[in-house]
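Researcher: I'd like a structural prediction for the single chain below. Treat it as a standalone chain; there are no partners to consider.
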Amino acid sequence: MDGLDLAKEVSTKRSYVWEVGERSHEPVAQVGVKDEPARFHVVAYDFGIKTNILRKLRGEGCRVTVVPAQTLAEDVLALKPDGVFLSNGPGDPEPCTYAVDSIRRLMGRMPIFGICLGHQLTGIALGGKTFKLKFGHHGGNHPVKQLKTGKIEITAHNHNFAVDPDSLPQSEVELTHIDLNDSTLEGLRHRNLPLFSVQYHPEAAPGPHDSHYLFKEFTKMMEEWK
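Model: Treating it as a single chain, here is the predicted structure.
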C-alpha cells in the first residue's frame, strides 16, 4: 500500500449531484420527518466517498455536488460552493499530489471539512507529513479525546496512515483530537482559516454516533463564512 495512489482509481469519473438525505429513505407519510431544506452548496471531492457521508451532508441542509478526485481547484471555484468536503478513501495520501495542490489553492477561499484520507491530505497541504501505522486502526469503539474539552468520543476507524503531529506548524494548526489507544492524531483545525478535519468516521452507520456534531460544525462554519 505504501506509495499507491488508489484514490484516483476508485473515484467517480464524472461529477454528479447527490439529493438523498439520511431522512429521505422513506416517504414522509411513513417516517414523518424531512431533511433540512438545502441552504448550502457543498462540493465533495470523491477519493472513495462513503454514501452515508453524502446522506449526512444532505440531511444537514447541503446540496452536494460530487466531483472526481483530480478535479482542479479552479473548476471547484467555478461551481461557487459555500464549502468543500474532502472524503475518505484508500491508499497512501502522499502520492495524491493533485489533491494536495487543490486543497492549498482552496484554503481560505471557503470552509473545508475533511474525513480520513481527506484529513491526511489536509495535513500534508498544511506542511505536515504522514506515516504508515504498524497495524492500522479498524472497526468501532475507538476512544478519541477532544483536547479542548476533555470529552471522550467513541468512534469508528478504518485507516492505515496517520498525520505526524510534530510535522505540523503549531503556529498555524491546532491539534483537536487524539486516539487514547496509541496517542495518534485524530483531528486538527487551522487557527485562522475555516478548515478542520478528523481521521475517524463521524458518519459511521450504525454507529457510534458521538461525532455527528462535526457535520453541524461544518454547516455552522459555512453560515458564519456567508
